[in-house]
Amino acid sequence: MADELWDELQNLAMRREDPELFVPHEAYAATVARNRLSLIARPLNPRAQNLFTVISSLPRIWGLAARVHGRVLDDTFVQFLFQSEVDLISVQRREPWIFNNWFVAFQRWEDLPDFDFLTTIDIWVQMRGIPLPYVCEETVTQIAEALGEVVELAFHDATTTQ
Q1: How far is CA 109 from the centre of its chain?
Q2: 127: CB partners within 8 A, 6+ apart
Q3: Domains held by the chain: number
Q4: Is the domain of 96 the same as that of 139?
Q5: DUF4283 domain spans which residues (predicted)?
Q6: How far apart are CA 89 and CA 91, in angstroms?
Q7: Is residue 76 part of a domain?
Q8: Is pLDDT larger for residue 130 or for residue 5?
Q9: What is the average pLDDT across 23-45?
Q10: 98 shares its domain with 31
């Protein structure tokens, strides 16, 4: 019995028997063109941030209600389609966005997203209250690295007042 089961497992085909699907290049190119001016968003607390409310509220907050169309992609992501590059960039420059007291992670649409797609948010942090003898770039770097990955450090010993 065990030998028969072992033989069946050895010869088991682990793929579906469905035919392969071929997507023509024209369809792929149309998808890339249509989504080029869009942001994918992921509300970080789905229990407190209804996806449909996010879609209706954020374009109004941005002042772009007539020029941005949103849609739910699945239970996790929403997509905002913009009419112009200027509007899209203006929304990106004012990130991070908060809806219903929780962050919403945004990233520009990519046809082949990375493994860490929409898993981080860049936040600008200003530090205050460091004791004066310890105000130096090394101290600021140490504190910033303890908080997370440091993308840019805007601190200069010669020009700081604190």
Answers
A1: 9
A2: 140, 143, 144
A3: 2
A4: no
A5: 33-111
A6: 5
A7: yes
A8: 130
A9: 88
A10: yes
Helix (H, G, I), strand (E, B) or coil at 111: coil
Q: Which residues of 23-43 are buried (b: 16+ CB within 10 A; e: fewer)?
A: eeeeeeeeeeeebebbbbbbb
Q: What H or E segment, with its residue span, contains residue 93?
A: helix 85-93
For 145, what's the count of Cα atoms within 13 Å in the CB-facing half-sphere?
Answer: 6
Tell me which range, 22-26, 44-48, 68-72, is most confidently predicted by mean pLDDT.
68-72
Q: CA end-to-end span of the chain, whole Å? A: 77
Average pLDDT over all residues of the chain: 84
**pLDDT at residue 68, rounded to an integer:** 94
**Nearest of 59, 150, 67, 68 to residue 97 by alpha carbon:** 59
Two structure tokens written together for 9: 């497992």
Residue 66: domain span: 25-108
